[in-house]
Write a structure and sequence with these properties.
- The protein has about 210 residues and is of the alpha/beta class.
- It has one domain: P-loop containing nucleotide triphosphate hydrolases (Rossmann fold, 3-Layer(aba) Sandwich).
- The chain contains 9 helices and 5 strands.
- A 5-stranded parallel β-sheet has the order 2-3-1-4-5, sandwiched between helices.
- The model has no long low-confidence stretch (mean pLDDT about 90).
Length: about 210
């Protein structure tokens, strides 16, 4: 099985790419969803997050308010590191279990969407890394619209991750997403064909 690590900046279009993989019958694991499991109501992770950040990050339904949590992380490096120490080990454990299960099932390919793939040095978990590229201006505009934050807050959130240029330099494959879904679909199918060819070579050499 060929293991693909999908990454990209905030609001770059990673979720849409995950949907395109699913349309092709490929199983996808989403790091943000695993992170939610790691801090689900009543879990040790949930209690640790509330103990650090306070009840201001708890929504009316009792779950964590992710937007409030993002705002708390923008300018507080210590808080960000604390959250990472709570969530990341569990996310990596669950992601590893997903890949093992897919390999055991005989799948030819599996995708893990990991926003901080390069920041956390997780490249070795994957056979190929795929970056969704977007220019900074477009990314900032999308992030403001998605999260309802100011331009300054959007730029600070973007600064928490490696730049698009740095991720491009480290990724095996690039998907461009500056002009919307039409462009992204075309790019995806081209890249998917490359992955299929690489997967055939991978199986032959294994």
């Amino acid at each position: 099985m060929i293991k693909i690590g999908l990454t990209g900046g905030a609001a770059s279009g990673k979720s849409t790419v995950c949907d395109l993989f699913r349309e092709e019958g490929i199983s996808v694991s989403i790091a943000d969803e695993l992170a939610r499991d790691a801090v689900a109501i009543g879990s040790p992770g949930f209690e640790a997050v509330v103990a650090w950040f306070g009840t201001g990050v708890v929504a009316a339904d009792g779950a964590l308010d992710r937007r409030a949590l993002r705002r708390a992380l923008i300018s507080d490096g210590a808080a960000r590191r604390a959250l990472e120490s709570i969530v990341q080990p569990e996310v990596i454990r669950l992601m590893t279990l997903f890949l093992e299960a897919k390999a055991s099932s005989g799948a030819m390919m599996a995708v893990c969407e990991v926003p901080l793939l390069f920041e956390l040095g997780l490249e070795s978990m994957f056979d190929l890394t795929l970056h969704v590229g977007v220019d900074a201006r477009t990314q900032c505009r999308r992030l403001m619209a998605r999260d309802g934050v100011t331009q300054g807050d959007a730029e600070r959130l973007m600064a928490l991750q490696l730049s698009d240029a740095e991720k491009r330099g480290r990724a095996d494959l690039i998907l461009e997403n500056n002009r919307g879904l039409g462009e992204l679909r075309d790019e995806f199918y081209e890249v998917f064909e490359k992955i299929i060819k690489k997967s055939h070579a991978f199986f032959i050499s294994s």
